[in-house]
Fold this sequence. Notes:
InterPro entries (chain A): AAA+_ATPase, ABC_transporter-like_ATP-bd, FeS-cluster_ATPase_SufC, P-loop_NTPase
Pfam families (chain A): ABC_tran
Order of helices and strands of chain A: EEEHEEHEEHHEHEHHEEEH
Domain ABC transporter (chain A): 5-250
Helix content of chain B: 10-25%
Protein name (chain A): ABC transporter ATP-binding protein
Family (chain A): Belongs to the ABC transporter superfamily. Ycf16 family.
Number of strands of chain B: 23
Radius of gyration of chain A: 18 Å
CATH architecture of chain A: 3-Layer(aba) Sandwich
Oligomer: heterodimer
Amino acid sequence: MQPLLVLEDLSVAVGERLVLRDINLVINPGETHVLFGPNGSGKTTLLGTIMGFSRYRVVKGRILFRGEDITSLPVDQRAVKGIGLAFQRPPSLRGVLLRDLVRRLKQDGVALERMAEELKLSEFLDREVNYGFSGGELKRSELLQLLAQNPSLVMLDEPESGVDVENMALIGKVVNYLLEKEPAPWDPRSLREVRRSRTKGGLIITHTGYILNYVEADVGHVLFQGKLCCSGNPRELFSCIQKVGYTECIRCMNLNGGCFCV
Amino acid sequence: MSKELTSSLDLASLPPEEKECLLRVGIELSGEGRGGTYLQFDQEVFQYQSWQEGLEVLSLAQARRLYPWVEDYLGRLLPEARPEDPEARGYFVRVLPGVEVHHPVQSSLFIAREGTRQEVHNLVIVEEGASLKLITGCASGACVRRGQHIGITETFIKRGGKLTFTMIHRWGEEVESTPQGAVWVEEGGTYIYNYICLSGAKKLVTNPSTYLAGAGAVVRSQSILLAPPGTSMDVGSRVYLRASDTKAELISRAITTGGEIVSRGLLVGEVAGVRGHLECHGLMLTPQGRILAVPELEARTANVELSHEAAVGKVAEEAVEYLMARGLDEEEALAVIVRGFLNVRIEGLPPALQEEIDRIIKVSAAGV
Lengths: 262, 368
């Protein structure tokens, strides 16, 4: 099976500062990975590098998407190939209506209305993209755009920050549509068909771990000071981090050559 | 109230490129979908006509002959600009009390010959409770490079009246244009002013004044400017809030692709309980060019609420990459952002002009 995404020895600098070091990661089709790590550990940089943003400079290694080296491909071509990102703090676009943007990503107007309704964003379609949106509204607007974009690799940068409990369930549900873990209401396929034919992959940054209550993840990783330190069962990893904190988790890993605290 | 003049010019024989020039400033030569029309080519008044009862569209000279009281209005707001010559060119548009004019009235001041100096004095009167949409398209012909346009417009909006005035300029690259205007708005009146200039003029200077003279009067002004290399624009709007509960909102969007823009706005709160907001945004699409935003607020008494917001800069890289992450290429992303920047929703914008705006955005975004 061809992996969906491979990061090979990837080191990334922002300006002159090295932010990510020797990152190796493989995401296979159908897999959902979760990325833990304290503030400033480089999680957003990792997602931004995979997306291809200009301020993240790859100084070593490469990025393969479905076997193709995309390390120097521009952002839009990566998006067209099937990489999608829900931003943690998306910019607002003055004068650009959400409806017009989403329509550009998906011509099918009926489904657009249906998707917006599902995300409780119907009234936001005629508002300027992200302008004056609350934290939760921003997250839902990002997911709406991703639904329209329908990427093969779904990257979510803290989908739960600023979201209240009630909307957290909604976000979890829509992330499951995106990752083909559940059929969307507009998807004619059955649950079984969707799961059996699943090819989409996910890479999700979470701080709070709330998303794990709604989305089944396969692998968890801890990013610490720019390095991927340990990997394992995401729930176990998260409960370990909650119990002993990142530093202890990493110390344990350094001592034992792997994470054994769980 | 209507008259078609015989003239050396003939609409049917007008070359297609000239018709195109007029279309692009919102002028429908057929008069279709219009409530009235006034066409002036160079210094020649070519046609004026009204298609609705209660709406008068005349040449200023004809209005002065018909109504002696017109003299009382001329120069009332701009005394130094009072036209002494009874044959002075310009249009006269008046809506009788309570009349709602259904279709927009168009007036066109067109420079057809190279080197013309066009001088006009216009008078617009919206009587009590009446409403009007007026589109003034000023342009120079396809072959004209050099010319001069000096337009003066005095506007009166009486109690409860409403006027939407959309002025569209499109000049040849050597044309100099210095329109001046003053607007008097009485109690409960509404004045909506849109100014659009998307093409070159060697020099463009305009800074009309609006006097909100009656309680509850409102002005909303929006300007869209685009300055290609070699152009210089100094465009503003001044509002004097001199009665209680008056409200003003001035919005300006300036884009340079190499030209120079001075974008001014002045709000003067003369009495208590007035509100005004000024928004001045400039976008530099090329490293060349210059934008100077000059938002000014003056409070002459306490208890006024005046604010402004000004921002000048280039397109945010972050926004471009955001759109690119959605699969738009860089050029498309820029076009979306620029179009959004200019999207200040102008009521009743003619389709030909909308197309022109879209075309210009595409061209300028491609050139970045």
